[in-house]
Model the fold of this input.
Amino acid sequence: MRSVWIVFWREVLVRLKNWRFWVGTLSFPVLIFLVWALPALIERFSQEKEVQVLVVGDLPLPAEKTPFRFVPSGEAPLDSLKALLHEGQEDLVILVLPQNPVESETCTLYTAFSLSAEKMEALKSILTEAFRTYRQAALHLTSEALTKLLTPPKIQVYKVTEAGAERYSAGLATVIGIFIGLGLFVLLLGAGYQILASVVEEKSNRLVEYLLLSAAPTQILRGKVLAGLLLSVFQMIVWGLALLLGRSLAFSMLMEVIQGQLHTIPWLWVVSFSLLGLLLYTFLYAAAGATSESVTELSPLSQAIQWPLILSVMVLPTLAAAGEGPVLKVLSYFPLTSPMYMPVRLIATQVSIWEAASSLGILFLTLLGTERLAARLYKHALLLYGQKLSWKAIWQIIRG
Done:
């Protein structure tokens, strides 16, 4: 075990000292900052001209609301107002309101220049509020009555089990499954590729000869896997904080769906399946790295390993919407997809403990077999310089 930790800390220190690791880790938070904060900063410090709106109609509008200033046109005919636009009047638009705002909501805007999408949305928001206030007064509606009129219906779903009925969100299983799949995918992008690149790099520079003096091949592989997972989790925490601070829509959707439903999620099963699934895919990456001789060979192999996760995320909403079925049940037992689909079944339907335990057992046995296979491939490929394992050699290694 001491040798595993030696390799583990060496991998961690090597990656932390590599500037490429920090570029990959911090580039995503910088991107989130640019997407979220930069437009707000530009809008705050820019000196945008105020748009003057000549209003034709009797709907009461605020005298001024950024970025507009509303000016009643009085009895001036519309044609004479349009002439002001032909004269090249800058930042001037004409807004024609309906004669009866209760019966009609169509407004006409005349302009000689293009209004940005942001300004159009701001104008629409101002008109929406004005129409609502006018109609509320015209129809003699109280604020309570208007609130009840505009409140959409809510559907509460209860899952019936032997212990009784428990409330849960209808989309909870789908959202949790998708986040598990995306989480595994993101972690593998970091940990898996680091392990692939590390194995290929050490085979090329013959550094592995020195590592073999203090650790066995299996211990070296385990140390690499643990180090890659730790650094990848660190990257994911940094990215998650960036999304949270950037008010990400994904986090908002997740919080909205699971609000008040956390107690219905079988967290022990979800964490167990996610952890074993992550280790399984990581050892698959390590095995792929052992069979490669150059970085150019890594891309096709890594893509082949990622496809089960990508397809699982793509078809999950359809399978979850169709309910419990043979396809969903089979995928909840298949090791490459069970880390996603068994938690989905546990949340959405009543699954017996022996079914969940059987699926977890299959996943665990597959993990042990994959670790053994990766260790064999890694051991045979360590000292092969300038060449790679052939399919015949790989098959002989698999057969033992």
In short: The chain has two domains: 51-150, 171-398.
